[in-house]
Amino acid sequence: MTVRILQFGTTGQVGIELLRQAPCHDVALTALSRAQADLADPAACAAAVRAAAPDLVVIAAAYTAVDQAESDTAAADVVNGEAPGAIARAARDAGAAVVHISTDYVFAGDKGQPYREDDPIAPAGAYGRSKALGEQAVLESGARALVLRTSWVVSAHGKNFVKTMLRLAGGDRPLRVVDDQLGRPTAAADIAGLILAQAPRLAAAPVGAPEWGVFHFANAGEVTWRRFAEAIFAEAGVAKAVEPIATAEFPTPARRPAYSVLDTGRLEQVFGVTPRPWPAALAEIVAELKTEGAVA
Ligand SMILES: NC(=O)c1ccc[n+]([C@@H]2O[C@H](COP(=O)([O-])OP(=O)(O)OC[C@H]3O[C@@H](n4cnc5c(N)ncnc54)[C@H](OP(=O)(O)O)[C@@H]3O)[C@@H](O)[C@H]2O)c1
Fold first, then answer.
1. Of the four listed, 92, 123, 167, 187, which is most buried by Cβ atoms within 10 Å?
2. Minimal CA–CA distance to 149: which of 109, 92, 91, 107?
3. What CATH superfamily is the domain 3-159+184-221+261-276?
4. 170 CA distance to ligand 1 centroid (A)?
5. Which of 32, 57, 59, 64 to mutate to test the pocket of ligand 1 (most atoms within 8 A of CB)?
6. pLDDT digits (tens, 9 = 90+) for 81-138
7. pLDDT, average across residues 70-75
8. Cβ of 40: how many Cβ atoms within 10 Å?
9. Is the CB of 158 under 6 A from ligand 1?
């Protein structure tokens, strides 16, 4: 059965990968841009779900400006908190399943061991708090919903750490990069691939099935931003020195979790999926950037 998917967000990293990969799966994907469905207007988003009556809704749009959210809290709360809830309630009424993407930033980042889905959340900033509101609203909606927390999303498009590092590669001075935050980089392509591969199963899974609830997904392996930067330059064949600095030396409006490692065991067990190591995902992204001429 071809799964009819309604996707919110067409221009973000995950949204683009969903659109690119959809033709390789037995899905009929309709994707709504911000102009077609603005998450700042939750009622309009709910109406879009009712109009489409899909099998599966994927929420790939979000207010992702982490620092800006600190001074724009109300807007972030509507987009990341209220809209996913309204979409999920409309999906419940339409009998559609929901995949909602969330973040490692719902955790305080002080656990020191990989975060499991049932660990208590304690977001350190406004973005994390807004995403936590969205998780709760989706989970309480009564929809057949999977909340997919991921971390350190990277790809050959949009704004992300890989592209930022390569943009800053010029000049003789070493690049100073934070070395006391640890996480799992994750290719947007792998998030999209997971969602599309599981779409038939999710569309069919009944209420109460093990597929519903919170799951963590990230590429395998832990790394600091500094070591990740070094790996990016090595992969791109760019000679660039990287100097480790502490988070305190790079102040930002939003506090970042020091320890962002997600435990993906539940997803591996329930869906039988093994995330590939992040260096393999990085190699693919750098190769794509090279093809586009974005890396010399
Ligand atoms: N990036 C990360 O490192 C990271 C880490 C963990 C979790 N996540 C989560 O992963 C998901 C996907 O992230 P991403 O990196 O793909 O995002 P992204 O590249 O920053 O793109 C965000 C997308 O959301 C759309 N959007 C923003 N505000 C909107 C609104 N009011 N109405 C409709 N669309 C709106 C943007 O559209 P415009 O082009 O119109 O702005 C864009 O398509 C998000 O839920 C995010 O919270 C991301």
1. 187
2. 107
3. NAD(P)-binding Rossmann-like Domain (3.40.50.720)
4. 28
5. 64
6. 999 999 999 999 999 999 999 999 999 999 999 999 999 999 999 999 999 999 999 9
7. 97
8. 13
9. yes
